Amino acid sequence: VIDVGISRADAGIVGDVDFAAVESVAAAITPMPGGTGPMTVACLVENTLTAWRRQHAR
User: Fold this and answer.
1) Which of 25, 37, 42, 47 is the most exposed place for a label (fewest CB within 10 A)?
2) Contact, 28 vs 1, CB < 8 A?
3) Which pLDDT belongs to residue 47?
4) What is the pTM (predicted TM-score) of this model?
5) How many CB atoms lie within 10 A of CB 10?
6) How many CA atoms does the CB half-sphere of 50 hold within 13 Å?
7) In sequence order, which residues have a C-beta less than 8 Å from that of residue 1 and are 6 or more positions away?
């Protein structure tokens, strides 16, 4: 689960995912804040490598 929602709470910025409700069915949950940025970078790197491999496989 990639938690991209943002809510303000007394504790600061929190995500919108109810961790207790999904922890039994989710393999992983990104932390909030600080989880979506690294996930975005990882996906961009993966897509860049895939594109490079496809371009050079010809």
Assistant:
1) 25
2) yes
3) 97
4) 0.56
5) 5
6) 6
7) 17, 22, 26, 28, 29, 30
Instruction: Give yes or no for residue 9 having a pLDDT over 80.
Output: yes
In this structure, the dihedral spanned by the alpha carbons of residues 30, 31, 33 and 36, taken in order and rounded to 10 degrees, is -20
Radius of gyration of the chain (CA): 16
The CA–CA distances, whole Å, from 32 to 4, 29, 41, 51 equal 8, 9, 16, 30
Q: How confident is the prediction for the chain on average, in pLDDT?
A: 87
For position 5, what pLDDT does the model report? 82
Please name the residue that has the structure tokens 């039994």.
Answer: 24
